[in-house]
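Late entry, written up from scratch paper. The run itself happened at the end of the previous shift, but nothing got recorded in the book at the time, so transcribing now.
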Amino acid sequence: MSLLTILDSWRAHEAPSLVVHDVPASAVLPAGDTGQTCRAGVDYFRLWLAEMRLARDREWFATRHPAVHALVRLRFGDADVEFPTVAGPLSLPGLDQAHLGDVIQLDHLLTPLLPYNGGVVEIAAGLLALEGTSAVKAVVKAMETMGAALAVPPLSTAIAATGALGSALQVLLGAASGRQHLGVHLSYAGAQVPKALHAGYLAIVRQDATRLEARDLSVQHGRLHLRGAPVTGLDYMLLRVERVQERDDWRALTAIDAPFREAQAALAYGNEAMAKASMSRALLEALQSKDLTEADRRRVASELKKAWEDARNQGLGLERTTPSLADAMALAVPVERFVEAAPVSMEALLSLD
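Output as recorded:
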């Protein structure tokens, strides 16, 4: 049985007492890019736990241990893959028995930056109520440590290990009887909201739908409100899908950055043959990187090519600072302009003559 199936079976038991609401831009202050669709091959996205509240309950931390989970299934490169993550109280500041009932501002990252390649994207997230001894907390901590390590780019190297994390989570769910206290599973596809993957907030409230009108929910400055006031007395999670056009972690893409730096250094030492070999490797890594969107693969290669030409025009054997991938992309053409411009052929991008 897959991890997603297990989570869905737990969620099904709680469905009658949950309200799930995709908060529209008209109910978000400031609206930002709420409702803006993610463009296949151009945009990236991340999933955040913007806010969570647990009403006071003497069973929490006594017989039930909270763990927040997220699982995203999407097209990554040429295969459909799952990225699971889990977080327990130790990594969720303020989530402990003494602070139950307080509004907890978390803004906790649930997924790394993921390229949107089109197709169907499934998002499952929720709060698990795991029953058992203190050993459960130790296992959750071990898994969240593993997940944090896997969330660092390049993600293409972590595919196999994410399977191991998912298997470990399945074992935990089987060993610790419990339930999904709050949870949601959504599938996004197409180009039109609400079915398309889009930026915005998703509220999951533990309350009977007959007693709470979704239209009364709003988000003000990252906090969930009910009829204009902060929500109190209810368990809820507020998730946020962030749409990203420009990466902020270029230094982490070492498979591209390292050979690019080597090429610059080789030019400085006057070794053009070694410089070309390293530069060709950097360009190939960029054009084949699963961590980049289709648009960014060519955009990154194009910017690296410009930096290479500038460096070579300075002449061989001249001392110079060694620019990094981050330096090259800091001066890059914005992705919007690059997408609109005439496409550059693969042959032209790879040519170093």
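The mean pLDDT is 83.
(Scratch paper discarded after transcription.)
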